[in-house]
Write a structure and sequence with these properties.
Blueprint: H1 7-32, H2 36-50, H3 69-81, H4 86-97, E1 106-114, E2 117-120, E3 124-125, H5 126-136, E4 142-148, E5 154-160
Helix pairs in contact: 3-4, 4-5
């Protein structure tokens, strides 16, 4: 004869299995917990090991070079031309404009230089140039010359293609 299990018996077995498995995990978690005083002693030992011994030699100082304004400007140009969204390009434009004395600062682009006589593209403003970068995603020009005002802001910019 075959024995058949009713739905109630199956549910009872399933519930017993779920409780059994979950209690095993809880016991494992409890077993993983250690004494707080032991942990504190271990941390103190680690701190002692990590503390270097004092020496008579002077500390070595690492000189961190901050990027020049020209390098920052080239970075802004790259960020604007490669921005994934218009909003991020506009945010980069606003940040870049803080480097200038005003948003209408002239920008000259050298397109050809024979000897000492450069040939310039049509003059533009920094706002128009930054928007050009955003629209065309074409950043081939590099900073060649920067003219600063008395406050250290850029009042004129010369770029080279």
């Amino acid at each position: 004869m075959k024995k058949t299990y009713s739905t109630n018996h199956m549910m009872l077995i399933l519930i017993a299995m779920v409780i059994g498995f979950s209690s095993c995990k809880n016991q494992k978690k409890l077993a993983d917990l250690s004494d707080p005083q032991e942990e504190k002693a271990e941390m103190e030992n680690e701190i002692e090991v990590e503390t270097p011994a004092p020496t008579d030699e002077p500390e070595e100082r690492v000189v961190v070079k901050e990027p020049t304004k020209e390098a920052k400007l080239n970075n802004y140009f790259a960020a604007i031309s490669t921005a994934s969204t218009i909003a991020s390009a506009n945010a980069s434009i606003q940040e870049a404009l803080t480097m200038f004395s005003n948003s209408e600062a002239p920008v000259l682009i050298v397109i050809y230089k024979a000897g000492g006589n450069p040939s310039y593209d049509e003059p533009t403003t920094i706002t128009k140039y930054l928007n050009y970068l955003k629209d065309t995603k074409n950043n081939k020009a590099r900073v060649e010359e920067v003219v600063y005002d008395s406050n250290g802001k850029i009042k004129e910019l010369v770029l080279r293609k």
